[in-house]
Amino acid sequence: MQIQYRLPDNLDQEINELEGLIAKCKQGEMSPAELKLHRVPFGVYEQRKSDTYMVRVRCAAGCITPEQLIKIAELATRYGSDKIHLTTRQEIQIHYVTLDNLIPVMRGLKETGLASRGGGGNTVRNIMSQEDAGISLDEAFDTTPYALALTSRLIAESDSWTLPRKFKIAFSGSSEDRGYATIADVGFITRIKDGQKGFKVYVAGGLGAKSDAGHFLLDFIEDDQVYAVTTAVKRIFWKYGNRKNKHAARLRFLWNTLGPEEFQKRFDEEYQAVKTQNLPPLTIEAIDNSGRSPVLREGKIEDQNDFELWEKRFVQPQKQKGIFSIIVPVHLGYLDNAQAVRLGQFLRPFGENVLRMSKDQNFLIRNIPETYLGNVYLFLKDTLDHFNRPLFIDKMISCAGASTCQLGICLSRPAANAVIKALSRYEIPAKALDTLSDIRINISGCPNACGQHPIAHLGFFGKVARKGDKVYPAYNVVAGAVVRDGETKLNEKLGEISARDIPAFIQEALKRYLSKSSEHKNFEAYLEREGKEDLRKLCAQYKEIPSFEEDKNTYFDWDSDKLFSVADRGKGECSAGLFDLIDMDLKMIEETRKKLDAGEAPEKKPEHLRTIVYYAARALLITRGCEPKTEKELHENFTTHFIHTGLVAGRFQPLLEMARERNDASLCARAQDVLALADRVKLLYEIMDNAFQFKINECAALPTAGVPQHPGAFPSREITTSPPSLPKIVKDFRGVTCPMNFVKTKMALAKLQPRELLEIWLDDGQPIENVPGSVREEGHAILEQKKINDYWAVVIEKK
Questions:
Q1: Residue 22 and residue 29: Cα distance in Å, rounded?
Q2: 694 and 782 in one domain?
Q3: What is the CATH number for 755?
Q4: How many domains does the chain contain in total?
Q5: Among candidates 21, 39, 41, 48, which has minimal Cα distance to 571?
């Protein structure tokens, strides 16, 4: 029985490569910004505390074994902070890891079958499933094996790491959509049709600064089509997604750009292409949820009433007779490492399939025979604080906010703590709070929705507000979301309040609902009928805030002794990718041009011109799969890919040699040409499409007459071969690792006409195992694949 995804075969190699890049960065051979391009797809994000990082661990379907939990907590203790953090996407984060300790953490995770690869960046992210999959009374069938198998397949594919933006997938077992399939890039909801297992499919949903519910795509696919459908959607995203504007790069923006009919048309084309390739379906291994009966001494329960209250709040029967699941409240997702280790040790005797992470940042213990409920109760009572308070309190969700996140505006977690503290005074009786456990209250520190506020029944997201000449922390108030198959809708903004007023506002909102709850089926129904109007009126009551002189507290965020400011707000790293590096190079050109225009320090003019030539030549090379190690190699690559192709005029070529040879007098004499070269590169960037191609008709804005080509003088490892029966182009990709070898192959194919041939040379091992398969998935034909000494020659016919 497999309850974990399979790690990609090349993970060791990728970790080793990242280790080398970190070493280069520390030695000053690579900038931190360049390193970011490589570390973010490994799930490594810089935190607000200088030189510390968060590592996000992939836990497909929220699955984690007791041994893995122990290992993560031990790694956090040794290399990070004293707590682990459960996320709203069923992952675990280790915080405050230094640059030197990133690689030991990754190797430690691998030892226990886990990885942070794909925890961030423009990648296939953690695949979600409802935490009670396999044990739920209302599910059609268990979605966990599908989430695990799909994870294993996708993270082994090179194009999963070079997408236009993040790509999120989710599974739900029923129309209640507890896995959030209707707000994912690709969402699957179980169905049974004529006795056949299958799924209903949604696409192009997602949360963020501009959230959107998913759109219906397919009413029913048989369960062996999950991989094919996902691959078709991923290919559409890879080909047509907006790579240049990260703020409009998610799949939902592509849906809006193309429109439903065109998106459906392109999906149908890709889906048929995938099916003609006869790719093997996912290998689905059923998971046993029957429970284990270890030899444990029965504990003595002294307070039977407290035990029964705990059962009522946290224990649910599974569909397996006599077996139960138990919610373990984790305060805003943060758990002491020592408590995590103890939990793992306690659960060991119950086997590997005993624990899941939920989207409300709690744990769900599963497969516990009724006999052992007392043991679990006593363990939790001895281990956790507040283990038996109303579940509503510990289902509240908050993102990390400005405490650690570079993008955070408000301290959302301290705000949530203030709410919890207020609720724990029980002005609203505990018995009443127990009736509210189905309500979703979510707080995000900024509009980016990491706290999932767009799908909250009652949500808040941080903003900067102003009174007079002072700014203060505030929250937009939203409400009314529904997440359900065929009914999903995001909430709407009702008003705004100061951060200081959040505890009182939530308490008053709940009191208003409780006073009318007998008239409504639930909180969702109350909001739809009259609750949103009640909340609008309540927001109006909190509109006026005191001046700074009257009450300074409003101008300080929760748990902060500093006057509120966003001056130290950083730049988010979630979308770190190719275009970030291009933008940095172009920015460097602009900054240097300003120095030239200012005319300051004339003796530095040659240095400024050399800088412009360097960054102009480098900026777009990454789109051609080039990573030059020296200035000479950089200039050769630029000549091959931009001057010899006519994209840049040949008259600019001498500038490269002048800059490299420090021929300052000649370079200064052609200063206007240096600036024209920079303008040309900027123009190319502006007209480049999402597949890194240039619209040649638009390139004519500048002269393109070039100098004679001299392949021998500019070795490009590209050979034009003559008999027509042989491949037209040979590309030597030996020494190029995954996924860059696949990127280079795509670039080479893009230059060919249909039915033209390309021969590529690949190293043995991961390159030959991955690249041909990825090429086939693009629709091209592999005509020949043969080993020559220690490398492989692969002949490709372009589709």
A1: 10
A2: no
A3: 3.30.110.40
A4: 4
A5: 48
